[in-house]
Amino acid sequence: MRSINLKFNKLIKYHLLFVCLIVFLLPKVSSGTNYADNQTDTSITNNNLPSVISDTLDTSLKERKIILKDSSVLVPGEPVTSIQEHPQEKVNSPHNNVNKIVLWLMGDKNVAEYKIRLIDYGNDHLPLFLRKYFMRFVEKTYTYPIIILFLLLISGLILNVTIVLLVMYFTSKTKNHRERYVRIYRNHYEDVLRSFLFGDIDWDLARLKLKRLKVPLNRKILTDVLLVFKENLRGEMDSQIPQIFLKLGLEKDSIKLSKSIFYFRRIEGLKALTNLDPENAKVIISNYLNDSHITVRTEAQVAYVRLHPENPFEFLKTLKKPFTRWTQLSSFYIFRLHQIPVPSFTDYLDSEIPTIRNFGLRMIIFFQQLENAPAIFKLLDSPFEMTRYLSIQAINDLRLYDGKQLIKNIYQGETEKNKIEIIKALKNIGDEADFEFLESIILSDSISLKTEACRSLYYINNLGRERLNVLNQNSDLEIDQFLAHVTNSRN
After folding, report:
1. From the first residue on, what is the mean pLDDT of each consecutive set of 10 residues in the chain (491 residues)?
2. In whole angstroms, how far apart are CA 213 and each of 175, 181, 210, 259, 405?
3. CA separation, residue 67 to residues 36, 72, 117, 145 (Å)
4. Whole-model pTM?
5. Domain locations in the chain?
6. How does DSSP classify residue 78?
């Protein structure tokens, strides 16, 4: 705070100093003329003479001025004296209104040429509705001293800096005040609720000590405190926390938040209801499973898994948008954390959404659901590479020997990633009938495929190792290098 005030005072001092300097450097303008000029102007202005007489008088007056300025008057017997004008400054004309310092630095010709270029630029590049303002700005720039414009611009800059500093100051002050307010009431609410949960005070006394509960910010603080207690406390206290939430009517605030137009507030409301009021959460959670915002959808889908332990993934049948990997991981984490019974994932393999089918395959592999083999075989014909990859992986990990010939049949049309997975599967479900298939890969395919084929052939059985030794006799294949890689424990 003190440093901001010091900076502000310095800015004011520098500003005043700069103004004084500009005033000192501004060109001085004299508005007076000589006596003869005044006489001429007065006589012409105040007399309504005929035009001929006026022209004659004007000519004689001009000659008189020339004689007074340029001639010497000789008087006999007197020393020679010269009658001269007193030195005085010229009157500013529109052309001389431009700052003299700029004219001295750049030259009169350069300044005029630059003005022409500015006007040409405005005519060529600016739209019609801006062109007149630009021309007006250029004319004012050349009519008034340029140093005044610089002064105005610098004053505007100083004003902007001052406003920014004031905004920063009041923003920081407001933020610090809010943080202090939240910290004080959070600690107060934690102490009161802790005393109630541990039996030190009854509910009536605790309700009296929970002050300012009509203030929205205080109700939000209290909800956050209850969420922290719900996450960290277990046993009898765990069941008392939702009761406190309902007694204080905080569920109304959460329901209102869940209907907000802002996604982060909807998430806040769903999270509070899921943890502190599961019954109300069950009623409204289905409305957000296909929400337009991905984060809201994730929160709702994860909450559904927790709130419906009897069938945690039933919502997958109603999804209309992709089931993202992050949501899959979050749902699986909640599923395992709360030890929810494992359902059958066969029904989700028929989904029209590829991400749901892929999730079902991953769950089948993880939970070793062997009864789903026919549905897995059907997915080998999927147009999506990842789905086929997971199907091949399921055949390998579940040791589905009936699928061996199926994956060999699709080998030639697969991507390299899926080809490697097929070769890996043959290491576990292959036999002597697959030697010729693996040897053909060693003789013709890429280095990575040859390496995996050697590995599978080596680990199928001892006959496979003997076949590798026979192939090693062909020096062109360099089988010994592949064997060294395969048998190395680091690989």
Report:
1. 54 52 43 40 40 42 43 41 40 46 59 78 83 80 65 85 93 93 93 90 90 91 92 82 90 91 93 90 91 93 92 91 93 90 90 93 92 90 94 94 92 92 92 89 84 89 85 73 79 63
2. 21, 14, 7, 22, 69
3. 11, 8, 44, 36
4. 0.64
5. 249-343
6. S
